[in-house]
Amino acid sequence: MGKSPCCDKDGLKKGPWTAEEDKKLVEYIQKHGHGKWRTLPKNAGLRRCGKSCRLRWTNYLRPDIKRGRFTFEEEETIIQLHGVLGNKWSAIAAQLPGRTDNEIKNYWNTHIKKRLLKMGIDPVTHAPRLDLLDLSSILTSSLQAHYCSQFINIPNSLNTNGYAVNPDLLDLANTLFSSSFKSPEEPQNVQEITPEVLDQFQYSLLANQLHNPPNNSHFLSENRFMHSNNAREIPLSNPSDFVSCHQNHIPSYWQADGDIQHQHMNIAETSVPVPNHGFDGSCRFDLDHLSSGHHAFQSNDATKVQSFGLGSSSLSSPMSSSLTWNSSSSTSTAYLGGCNKEDRDGHSNHFLSPLYDAAPNSFYVNGIM
DNA sequence: AATCGCGTCAACCGCGCGGAG
DNA sequence: CCTCCGCGCGGTTGACGCGAT
Q1: Residue with CA nearest C1' of nucleotide C8
Q2: N or C: at which end does chain A have fewer Cβ atoms within 10 angstroms?
């Protein structure tokens, strides 16, 4: 069946909108509401087709449009939803208040898709593909992974807790690492850890979690999305295994003042000795409120509580959050581990979120850890 | 300073769906 | 049913900005 054009093309303007056109459109919609896009331009005194007006309104002029960079939470939500919905941009946009399908589509194509490809993740199927893998990225990530493994036993903790990690990726990373790096205390080759490296490492974990969830139905349950579409849930048989930091050492970038996006960190400088005054027990590492708040570490000694959080949520890039270590007493030892309603030494934990209560034997991870 | 290449994103285009007649 | 119309969706384009050379 033939389809008539949405409007008479003759004499209608195309291309970028002027401020005057915007004003006319906004004023008309404020007065009469939107809809009837075919007749709207004529009534509003615009020499545009209805389609163009609708697009301009929905993608740009609508008052509830959210501007600025995508947050980490938004980005993670997009990846999660894309894994379920595919290129249903409007459906994805419906889960992200203030974001348009067009904006999400653009962001996917220009940022996320490329990053996934670089990591060897098929952006269509979300499946790991070694043929797509950028080996240099993996090498970089493996260096970071090994460095982090001084603090976090990633492969062991994930595997021993029934959390499937793409074994090819891990093997490759471990192989590459073991042949290239011996000890962060005696670095053979100094590896710069840039925010991009952190991104890659984080995405490697994220991708593994996405594609090897221990229980799909649980992972993708409506409940999960409702309660936290920006948190990752990892069931742990022994939560304190998951993350453990060496006492007396904490990565220096956690203590960086200001915006670490513009700082390059050096492995030779990533550990710092700290005075011994706390954090010798389990604690909850919860980034659910990364965008605004600070996060408390509960030590066994209830009087010794430290916090950290995002320095400024407004300027951080989605993946390279600017973590600051807010402490009035210089630095401290952090011992990160899972926790139950009581920590392993029986001390109650004062900063459990509702998420924790919803699944008391789970540990939520959302962020570079 | 000029040119080139690339990334970004607003805007366009064609198609398909669903409701109305 | 069939056709038409309005609208929304997803893919693509092209203008623009910026960094590299």
Answers
A1: A90
A2: N
Q: Where are the beta strands (DSSP E) in chain A?
A: 192-193, 232-235, 249-251, 265-266, 271-273, 294-298, 305-310, 323-326, 362-365
Question: A53 vs A289, which has greater pLDDT?
Answer: A53
Rounded distance between C-alpha atoms, residue A107 and residue A15, angstroms: 21
Q: Give the CA distances from residue A262 to residues A72, A290, A327, in Å, rounded to whole numbers and listed in that order.
A: 18, 19, 22
What structural domains and CATH numbers belong to chain A? 19-61 (1.10.10), 135-365 (no CATH)
Q: How far is the CA of A104 from the C1' of C10 (A)?
A: 12
CB < 7 Å to strand C — which of 107-166 in chain A?
109
Alpha carbons A270 and A184: distance in angstroms, whole number: 9
**Percentage of residues in chain A having pLDDT higher than 70:** 32
Q: Strand B closer than 7 Å to the CB of A67? A: no
Looking up tokens 């965008």 gives A291
Nucleotide nearest to A15 (CA to C1'): B11
Q: What is the pLDDT of residues A179-230, one digit of tens each?
A: 333 333 333 333 333 444 444 444 444 444 444 433 322 222 222 222 222 3
Confidence of residue A336 (pLDDT cuts 50, 70, 90): very low
Name the residues in A83-102 having a C-beta closer than 7 Å to nucleic acid strand B: 102
A55: nt with nearest C1' to CA:
B11
| Residue A12, nucleotide of least CA–C1' distance | B12
Dist. CA A282–CA A363, nearest whole Å: 12
Cα–Cα distance measured from residue A158 to residue A317, given in angstroms and rounded to the nearest whole number: 27
Helix axes A135-149, A195-211, angle to 10 degrees: 90
